[in-house]
Specification:
The complex is a heterodimer of chains A (234) and B (317).
Chain A (H helix, E strand, L loop, with lengths): L5 E6 L2 E5 L6 H18 L3 E6 L3 E6 L6 H13 L11 E8 L7 H8 L3 H10 L2 E6 L6 E4 L14 E4 L3 E5 L2 E4 L4 E3 L2 E5 L20 E7 L1 H6 L10
Parallel strand pairs in A: 5-13
Antiparallel strand pairs in A: 1-2, 2-4, 3-4, 5-12, 6-7, 6-13, 7-10, 8-11, 9-10, 9-12
Chain B lengths: L1 E8 L2 E5 L19 H10 L7 E5 L3 E5 L3 E7 L4 E3 L2 E3 L4 E4 L4 E4 L7 E6 L33 E4 L7 E3 L11 E8 L8 H9 L1 E8 L3 E5 L13 E2 L4 E3 L7 E3 L6 E2 L3 E5 L1 H7 L7 E7 L1 H17 L3 E3 L7
Parallel strand pairs in B: 13-21
Antiparallel strand pairs in B: 1-4, 1-11, 2-3, 3-10, 4-9, 5-8, 5-10, 6-7, 6-9, 12-22, 13-20, 14-15, 14-21, 15-18, 16-19, 17-18, 17-20
The chains are: A alpha+beta (234), B alpha+beta (317).
């Protein structure tokens, strides 16, 4: 169902555009396209943008432009008729070492889904995921959507420490933890590719709007690719 | 080149410039001074633009300089001493090589800014020196200042000593009225719930830090369980399922899925961030248009405030 994007006040120098109430690849592509146009239209008046599943937060300089002007730019961007597609982003392959050792929730998740561990590993690789949003922590990319059969709620008690590189599932989202942090997602493997390196340029291998494909590797390959063993994950 | 050595970091001392902008798309938050007004005055008293300063929370910071340097301390009522002798806030102070500057503990106002003429010389990360400990980004190595840290600074060039006239200084109290630009999911809060929010007084809880201030008081509920995660701006008032509002500050997560009733005016966030647990706040509703007028008036007024030129009478021999 097609709904008209809606502009809403968010703060003294912030407007948020809602593109719909559900996250789909098409909605996300529209968010991304609008963000790109606003960067060009607003130039130095733009302070920052936060694209998410079905919304775009626009932060502007309140001393150099006023809300009606910003609304005008947003409407201009929304009226743009240049075609865009939900496959415009780059495709990024991320290797994953799936195992009970590297993913302590893998067996539990399989049992819960009534699947074999091999099925879970196969299904997790079978989808090209879209980067819907980046947030929570630097480099934390929310990827969707995982196969319905793999959808699993967050842990009742979050772990105090999820290791860097942990590949995880929460509901129909999947992600790679960029740095060690507390977290409540279900861990199914480890990815050796750094998801956030403040000293690298670009600092992240993916951007919002890109697609991610996971490919299975074994323990040996994980180590060869520079993966660090986190020790026992509890 | 001069060097500032941290002899004791106090409760929490962080290097902060005006904040990190244009990096939300990789999940970096803005950081920057919790009280941008006190930050501004500290820098202006040192004839700086938005240079890197030390934000000291609650107190206990002690530092030593190895060359003549001009500094200014602004913000909450932390007693300032130079080599053990009391010194004023809100004016430029001349330090000599070997001098020790110390901030005592505050009973009123929880943040102070120490600015250094010429600015602290710190390499920016993602365009800013602002320290966000949660991200491990900014400052000297992504952490709070520690004992023994040394920060490059600029030797006193003999520039003027200035003072902000007392009548122009912010007045810190144990209470703040926070003006809220309503928006976001406001329409999902019933009229009764909104009235309760705007007519009640809330206490600052123990859980108040650079990410946000959790408040305690009459619970407020929206008709929503949660929302699709979306961008969170500075000052957003988030209402989690327990109904206790959280005002999100400089080190907030950039996206989240709790309903929000609007966002606190930035000028009032400066007041909120000076409060301590047990202090009280209430909220007042404003719209975006009024917020714009208030901001323009404030910034125009601030530009025209003249500083007093003072004799450098505070010289420690």
């Amino acid at each position: 169902m097609e709904t008209q994007p809606r502009i809403q006040v968010a703060g003294e120098n912030a407007l948020i555009i809602y593109f719909g109430s559900v996250a789909t690849a098409a909605v996300s592509a529209h968010v991304q396209h609008t963000a790109q146009l606003l960067r060009e239209l607003m130039g130095p008046h733009l302070i920052d943008l936060i694209p998410s599943y079905a919304s775009l937060l626009v932060l502007f300089d309140p001393l150099s432009c006023d809300p009606p002007q910003v609304c005008h730019w947003i409407e201009q961007a929304l009226e743009d008729e240049t075609s865009f597609s939900d496959s415009d982003g780059q495709l990024v392959e991320l290797p994953v070492w799936y195992s009970a050792e590297s993913g302590p929730d893998l067996e539990e998740l399989a049992a819960r889904a009534g699947l074999s561990v091999d099925d879970v590993i196969r299904l997790h690789q079978a989808t090209d995921y879209r980067v819907y949003a980046i947030g929570f922590a630097p480099g934390f990319a929310y990827l969707g959507e995982v196969d319905e059969r793999l959808a699993t709620p967050r842990l009742a008690t979050p772990r105090r420490r999820v290791p860097q590189g942990a590949v995880a599932i929460a509901d129909r989202q999947t992600a790679v933890y960029p740095t060690a942090s507390p977290g409540g997602w279900n861990l199914i493997g480890l990815c050796p590719t750094p998801m956030f390196d403040p000293h690298a340029s670009p600092s992240m291998p993916v951007s919002v709007g890109d697609r991610v494909r996971f490919t299975a590797i074994d323990r040996q390959q994980f180590l060869e690719l520079g993966g660090q063993l986190p020790g026992e994950i509890r | 080149m001069a060097t500032v050595e941290i002899l004791h970091p106090g409760l929490l001392s962080l290097l902060q410039d005006s904040g990190r902008f244009g990096q939300h798309q990789i999940g970096l938050t803005s950081g920057g001074p919790l009280d941008p007004e006190a930050f501004y005055w500290a820098n202006r008293l040192c004839d700086n633009d938005a240079a890197t300063t030390i934000e000291a929370s609650i107190g206990g910071l002690k530092l030593r300089v190895d060359a003549p340097i001009r500094v200014a301390v602004t913000g909450g009522e932390m007693p300032v001493t130079i080599n053990g002798t009391s010194a004023p806030r809100w004016q430029t102070l001349r330090l000599q090589a070997g001098d020790t500057l110390e901030l005592g503990y505050s009973k009123l106002g929880s943040r102070c800014y120490v600015a250094f003429a010429g600015g602290l010389q710190v390499e920016p990360q993602f365009g800013s020196t602002a320290t966000v400990v949660r991200e491990g980004i900014g400052g000297l190595r992504g952490t709070a200042l520690q004992k023994g840290d040394t920060i490059p600074a600029v030797v006193d060039d003999g520039g003027p000593c200035l003072r902000l006239p007392p009548a122009k200084r912010p007045h810190y109290t144990h209470r703040a009225t926070l003006r809220v630009v309503t928006g976001y999911q406001q329409d999902h809060f019933s009229r009764e719930q909104q009235q309760r929010f705007f007519r009640s007084t809330y206490d600052v809880s123990e859980r108040c830090d650079r990410m946000g201030y959790r408040l305690l008081g009459p619970p407020v509920h929206s008709a929503l369980d949660g929302i699709l995660s979306e961008g969170i701006c500075l000052g957003a008032v988030q209402i989690p399922p327990d109904g206790q509002p959280i005002v999100l500050l400089n080190d907030r997560q950039t996206i989240g899925g709790y309903p929000k009733i609007g966002s606190v005016l930035s000028l009032d966030l400066a007041r909120l961030a000076q409060l301590m647990p047990g202090d009280q706040v209430n909220f007042a509703e404003i719209d975006m248009e009024l917020a714009q007028r208030i901001l323009h008036l404030y910034y125009n007024m601030r530009r025209t405030i003249a500083l007093d030129l003072i004799a450098p009478d505070f010289i420690v021999e």
